[in-house]
Amino acid sequence: MKLNYVLLDVFTTTRLQGNPLAVVLKADGLLDDQMQAIAAEFNLSETVFIHKPQSERHSAAVRIFTPKVELPFAGHPTVGAAVALAMQTRSTAVRLEEKVGVITCVMDRVDKEKGHARFALPKLPEEIGKPPSHAAIATALGLELDEIGCGPYEPAVYSAGNPFYLIPIKDAAALRRIRVERRGWDENFPIGRGSIYVFTRTPDERDNDFAARMFAPGMGLGEDPATGSAAAALIGLISRHEGNGQHEFRLRQGHEMGRPSLISMQLRKDGDVLTHGGIGGDAIVVGEGTLNLGD
After folding, report:
1. Which CATH number applies to 126-278?
2. pTM of the model
3. Residue range 177-197, pLDDT digits in tens
């Protein structure tokens, strides 16, 4: 069995930046354990497998795997898969069947090497639990107690398909200084896979409104360069502090890893209720190849 794949860098227009992604095409013949093994072989934060959709109205069904687990939804695989499919079909919209639901990605622009996709969240973020104490968070991040919190933002736990501990901290300098302490992690962050999204406002940075870092030891990852599903969860917390109407924000991630990424976030509130959330970003092809899986 031989399968073609595409490598893309997502949430960037520059190769060797952003979050790398493998998209395996025409993967219908693969079993679950084979897809998990291939994702472990690529050893990227996520690998996407393209399957025929259940509905003829949709473009594809996708399965998303980290090196250790399958995910029902993830942002950078959604953007990357949409761009990869749009390059083949020249579509202006791509409908993807994911385990979290059907996602419609609108292609703002696409050519033979790169594109920009944005999509409405199939599941709006909701608060799903309680965070640990400020003291426990400070210890886990190697920060001082007074560096936990940012303006009106306090730690919270949200999910828009994947659960995340959302941890606001004082400023971008504190974000750079994080030194993760793994001891006690499972006890302090028991919800989901113990993934945390540390963020801060960046009022002194012209190109973005927020900066973030994501750590997910339970997903087979250390630090992730760009995490759309975490940004989707963050929309829920941000919306609590915004008025009615449409709001747009830009978030940078991955700078501390040398993989600069930029994620766009949109939200709308009507009657003080979050009614829309959206994620967008660029993707660029880095390489193509063939998997040789034998007979």
Report:
1. 3.10.310.10
2. 0.95
3. 999 999 999 999 999 999 999
